[in-house]
Amino acid sequence: MSIAALSPTSFPGSISGLLQVASLLGLLLLLLKAVQLYLHRQWLLKALQQFPCPPSHWFFGHKHEFQIDQELEKLVKWAKEFPSACPRWLWGTKVVIVLYDPDYMKVILGRSDPKAHSTYRLLSPWIGYGLLLLNGQTWFQHRRTLTPAFHYDILKPYVAVMVNSVRVMLDKWEQLISQDSPLEIFQSVSLMTLDSIMKCAFSHQSGTQFDKNSHSYIQAIGDLNSLTFTRVRNIFHQNDTIYSLSSNGRLFKQACKLAHEHTDQVIKQRKSQLQDENELEKIKRKRHLDFLDILLFARMADGKSLSNKDLRAEVDTFMFEGHDTTASGISWTLYALAAHPEHQQKCREEVQSLLGDGSSITWEQLDQMPYTTMCIKEALRLYPPVPNVSRDLSKPVTFPDGRSLPKGITVSLSIYTLHHNPKVWPNPEVYDPSRFAPDATRHSHAFLPFSGGSRNCIGKQFAMNELKVAVALTLLRFELLPDPMRIPQPVARLVLKSKNGIYLRLRKLK
């Protein structure tokens, strides 16, 4: 080989050739990807031809149809135009079939389809793979392990804990209303439900409602709610790396850090307490264990304890769901009663006749408030705490009207739209507690505030108990009035929130 053949002057040509080859390969890969996306879109269009929907853009989907924070209203409008279900195109190759018919809901909730991966995986950096995100046999094992935490023998003593937490909140409100201005209640209700869940499920006895760290946790949860909801609908934020570089991604990471610090501290404190032999003796004497103790002493099918990762995932999941959904239900129920004074007064009279001055509430009395319970359920119909759940079809499905969907389609069960569907609920925007009178009839899947089927909310009885305690004690102490200048505007998030807060005027009863 000659020296000239190895001279540096030969490299530019070689590099140029390599760049040309790389460019050609890149173009071929892009072309291949474009063909794949085109073919997938054509498959989707064919699969959904039985389900009409408003015209959509080939790239932006139905984005032009959905103004910021107007999603709920738009879906309710679609329910009037398109029977039972309607495709919603998020972008060119991403579509979900929105369901809002009870027969359709019954079919899907009676199956074992997994949670929609493309949506729920975005929650995993925050709450990990706990009961909400798990699927299949692992989900079943965790559900079976945790079910004893909601046995009625466990829930009974929680009532007294809830009463104390609610009274702390009401005492704070009593001091604040002396300023004679409307009070935003969602924040303080969230602190109260967090205080309650910390004491009931996590054996944490400190004053959460006065703790600055708890305020930070509540704020972090609110941020994570909004950021995750926004990310699901943004085509450019689906990739984890790209999202991590965005401003929203950085906020999400910081909020996750705050949330995890909170739950890590709860786990650490309980583990420390269990080092005490006296505490261990108490645990051994218990017939049923609290939520966190079940996790700490759990043995899976293979005989192993939960890993630290799995443990924190379940704590993060229940810490979030156990306080935020209940706070939503309580806040919207109090607003509904404030907006309908005639029903508020009937509830108050029922509670007064049962509880007197409210010095105590027993487990048995929770089932002796029929009218108050009707009012709570009607509020949960109008304002379901979880407005939507999603599934990926693991096999084809045929609905009662004969229409079908293939395996691989994502279905979105819009609980909010179902509850506002005029074909299911006559005059759906009217607050009418008589819909839930003992002799009233309705479809088994027309009312789903806690979802349904095998994956229904494991803590639904806990939540209903807390709703009844909070509503009863609040009505004994205050008259509730709406703020006419700030009518709450429901907005879709992971948990139903109000765009402009929930403001009430409170008048202390004599």
Report a brief summary of the structure:
Belongs to the cytochrome P450 family. The chain has 510 residues and is an alpha+beta fold.
Structure description:
The protein has a single domain (about 70-510), classed as Cytochrome P450 (Cytochrome p450), CATH 1.10.630.10. The longest helix has about 35 residues, at about 10-45. Residues about 1-5 have low confidence and may be disordered. Helix 9 (about 210-230) packs across helix 11, helix 11 (about 245-275) packs across helix 14 (about 310-340) and helix 14 (about 310-340) crosses helix 16. Helix content is about 55%, strand content about 10%. With about 500 residues, the protein is of the alpha+beta class. Belongs to the cytochrome P450 family. It is found in: Endoplasmic reticulum membrane; Microsome membrane. It comes from Octodon degus. This is Cytochrome P450 4A11-like.
Mean pLDDT: 91
Count of discrete domains: 1
What's the end-to-end separation, in Å? 106 Å
Tell me what portion of residues adopts beta-strand conformation: 5-15%
Shape: globular
Give the tally of β-strands: 11
Low-confidence segments, ≥5 residues, pLDDT <50? Answer: 1-6
Summarize the amount of helix as a percent range.
Answer: 40-55%
CATH topology: Cytochrome p450
Give Rg in angstroms: 26 Å
Q: What is the tally of helical segments?
A: 18
Briefly note the structural class of the backbone: alpha+beta
Largest sheet: 4 strands, mixed
Transmembrane segments: 17-39
Organism: Octodon degus (Degu)
Binding site for heme: 457
GO cellular component, one term: endoplasmic reticulum membrane
